[in-house]
Amino acid sequence: MNVHEYQAKELLRRFGVAVPRGHMVTSADEARKAADDLGTPVVVVKCQIHAGGRGAGAIVANEGEAASVFEASLAREGLPKHDKPGGVKLAKSASEAADAAGTMLGGLLVTRQTGAAGKQVNRVLVEEGCDIATELYLSILLDRAVGRTVVMASTEGGMDIEKVAEETPEKIFRQSVDPAVGLGDFQARNLAFNLGVAPDKIADAVKFFKALYTAYVELDASLLEINPLILTGAGDLLALDAKVSFDDNALFRHADVRELRDENEEDPKEQRAAEFDLSYIALDGNIGCMVNGAGLAMATMDIIHHHGGEPANFCDVGGGATSEKVAEAFKIILADPSVKAVFINIFGGIMQCDVLAQGVVDAAKQVGIEVPLVVRLEGTNVEQGRAILEGSGIDIIGAADMTDGARKAVEAAGLT
Amino acid sequence: MSILLNKDSRVLTQGLGKTGQFHLRGCRDYGTQMVAGVRPGKGGSDFEGVPVFDTVEQAVTAEGCNVAVIYVPPPGAADAIMEAADAGVGLIVCITEGIPVADMVRAKRFLEGLESVLIGPNCPGIITPGEAKVGIMPGYIHKPGRVGVISRSGTLTYEAVHQLTLRDIGQSTCIGIGGDPIIGTTHLDAMKFFNDDPDTDAVIMIGEIGGSAEETAAEWIGANMNKPVAAFIAGQTAPPGKRMGHAGAIISGGKGTAADKIAALEAAGITVAKSPADMGAALVQAAEAAGLQLAS
């Protein structure tokens, strides 16, 4: 789960991490008041969406414009700049702040990361202007190779960190954290000196890094990224931006974090799937897939591609799919207008094929399927399962194995 | 013979809720020695004749358990792993899906320096066909034999095993290592076990997008493995940045793509199946290239 920048900063502030003062607002009038309240000569107005690249992004009025600006200026590197207002704006007065917020709110912000559809701007953050001397980078995340948390910092702030890692790896500093000890003072000092913090500010920097690490652990974050992290003119560290992602598996122990969810930022189909404990991800193809198990679901997408088709989705109904879950998965898959055929690929282990077949039949009758349906069943009670499908009166294309199913689905999708 | 698990293994079950009970029966029916259960507060009772203890330590002392299988729900699962390791259980199989990453970071640290081997979490378990099954896989699709199977996935493993069995190729041991970002036994660890097992002739390894465990294993295989290996990588069509069901299956920062993994595997001399329907065929091909006949 992700949260907005203003929410991330609010959380970090609780742990003693220095962040700029600011207010989240939803109207131009509130933005004016926020700027007055902050009282700094310059304020920054920032769109709040769950995607990066906001500064270089474009505020547009509608989806058509979003798509054309994306194609012309954002889809890849080296394209000419657009002439639209961006998603981050410096304002030198309260009325300028109000104007900027007015332009942003209700518009679509399209960035390198949002894709051609862009994202609607419903909230903006008005923040005090800061005295930036140096831009740095810092993130905390899991190092899968060793199963430990790693704190990663770089002198190349504001840049795409993956590019830095590729081109100038010597500018990235890592500290691997022993979970039994936590981030050691010496590790925080290493980071601070590597980043060029002044000797008289090292003690403060150690506190700053340790507060960030504590926030990461206590919040069960899966990623905490500060880009840019800045050194102010006075030599202090300040989190100018903040991105926090949370471990979904740990949300059960963070009621306060769960409340920060912004449903406008999530794909409605993926949300609905989550409610039914289904794992669904929309893709660009036209063959809907329903599979039990994540690995087999990915493999099913692969085999469709291998035989010349493209999957419309990833959908894992899980090991214990009931007829209710299968029906819901059907509805979600068929709600995608690009789906021209559906391929159900089930290897019944603990889940029995006859139970699943009955679920498919019930769901098909309930939902009403107008596209070709290819079903491949294998595993426990497979004979009973196939008999149920055959006796159902529903027009189902049976498949002997994965290859057969994929071929038939690709062919069926091509015909419609 | 086999790796990690055989007919003499004595298994205790942690987490005797509905799921734990169901699979305890399934494993027992397969012929596994399911000798104890642990359910804090229910010590002294029994589940269908299987004695239940309050703590793992008690179960180990009374029943000589050397394998633990864990179905404890996510909030307590990492603790259950540590309890089993602390009691000296040699093989710990954690089936539980959805354990917080931070809990597993601590559990993994706890296991450092201890003898216990952890399989999982978020895995189907381990089976030595014809001898013992510890986990949730359907036993009947397996066939005793001499091919080792290693996989991150559940049902995709069944698919691979099914393909082997249809070709009359039996399996020595099949391990589902789990789909989480932090797991105990890795592809590499399992591969080393199979390389050292005199009763395994060839190995099939099924990976998926995310992380770099397959690449690490490939490098080792290229330099050290003395048995033929075939592989398949799931997620060739997965877009970057999207988590495909398994918590670990995500292409991030251009890393962990199927293409990278396949290239690393092929560079190590491993036969890679292009389609998931060809996993069995790829293994036969790898074996034949090594002058080995697999089907019994």
The gyration radius over C-alpha positions of chain B equals: 19 Å
Q: Total strand count of chain A, please?
A: 19
Share of residues in helices of chain B: 25-40%
The CATH superfamily title of the largest domain in chain B? Succinyl-CoA synthetase domains
Q: Which strand-content bin applies to the residues of chain A?
A: 15-25%
Count of discrete alpha- or pi-helical segments spanning 4 or more residues of chain A: 14
Q: How would you describe what is shown here?
A:
- The complex is a heterodimer of chains A (416) and B (296).
- With 416 residues, chain A is α+β, with helices and mostly antiparallel strands.
- Chain A has 3 domains: 21-128, 2-Layer Sandwich (Dna Ligase, domain 1); 132-258, ATP-grasp fold, B domain (D-amino Acid Aminotransferase, Chain A, domain 1, 2-Layer Sandwich); 268-415, 3-Layer(aba) Sandwich (Rossmann fold), CATH 3.40.50.261.
- Chain A contains 14 helices and 19 strands.
- In chain A, strands 8, 9, 10, 11, 12 and 13 form a 6-stranded antiparallel beta sheet that branches. A 4-stranded antiparallel beta sheet of chain A has the order 1-7-2-4, covered by helices on one side.
- In chain A, helix 6 (185-194) packs across helix 7 (202-218).
- The two termini of chain A are 38 Å apart.
- The mean pLDDT of chain A is 92.
- With 296 residues, chain B is α/β, with parallel strands linked by helices.
- In chain B, 34% of the residues lie in helices and 22% in strands.
- In chain B, the strands form 2 sheets. Chain B has a 7-stranded mixed beta sheet with strand order 3-4-2-1-5-6-7, with helices on both faces. Chain B has a 7-stranded mixed beta sheet with strand order 9-8-11-10-12-13-14, with helices on both faces.
- Chains A and B meet through helix 10 and helix 14 of A and helix 1, helix 4 and helix 5 of B.
